[in-house]
Amino acid sequence: MTGNKQQPRVVVVRTAGTNCDQETKHAFELVGAAVDLVHINEIIASKHCLASYHILALPGGFSYGDDLGAGRIFANELRCALSHELKEFLKKGKLVIGICNGFQILVKSGLLPGFAQFSQEATLTLNDSAKFEDRWVYLKTAESVCVWSAGLPDKIYLPVAHAEGKFLAEGQAVIDKLRQGRQIVFRYCNSCGQPDGYPHNPNGSTDDIAGICDPTGRILGLMPHPERHMSFFQHPHWTRLRKQCEGDGLQIFRNGVLYVQKNFL
Length: 265
Hints:
Elements: E1 9-14, H1 21-30, E2 34-39, H2 40-45, E3 55-58, H3 72-81, H4 83-91, E4 95-99, H5 101-109, E5 122-125, E6 133-141, E7 155-162, E8 166-169, H6 172-180, E9 184-189, E10 209-213, E11 219-222, H7 250-263
Parallel strand pairs: 1-2, 1-3, 3-4, 4-11
Antiparallel strand pairs: 5-8, 6-7, 6-9, 9-10, 10-11
Helix pairs in contact: 3-5
């Protein structure tokens, strides 16, 4: 394990098909965390190792080739092999973030929306366009209980890259509970911050949902990629804009680190 006792410790869990682990690691390191990349098989073989971290990150990619559906096999591993360890991890008030494929994993494992832990109540399924969507999108930052979104601007700009990003709940009751619990963290929008259908909503998600959290606000899942907008120079229009200090995604990772520093160190 890297780092020292004064640094928030992050584990980025990968497997066959994960392809955003290095970017996610770099994002957390930029804001002061000590980060380890660990294969899911190592986590399962040495289950106690989760306890030594403050943040669990599930990065983007196509875990196990998205066989049986995006994130399904990885989600089954979490639910069937690590449910006890994850419950202990969360009971201690620690944080989880899932990005793109990581969001799919969290939803299909039942960790999100989190009303009935390890019981699936929603899914992320094929885009309405029936094709892979690779574009930059605007996100409206909702007023939510999420610790990861604190201090974000009203509207941010991040890229998406997915074929199965359409958020669907098991029923309207789940959507109602998400709204009532202020668990909807990000919604797709246009450049004016308004809902505007395709292509601004690239997948057809219910209620334009791009990211949600659990009732505690400590587990975040989102389809867009904040780790791909760490630097202002990653913005596709950076040559036409006033220079900024950082990209829109960095604050999300900083919020996780600040939470750990405040509550654990």
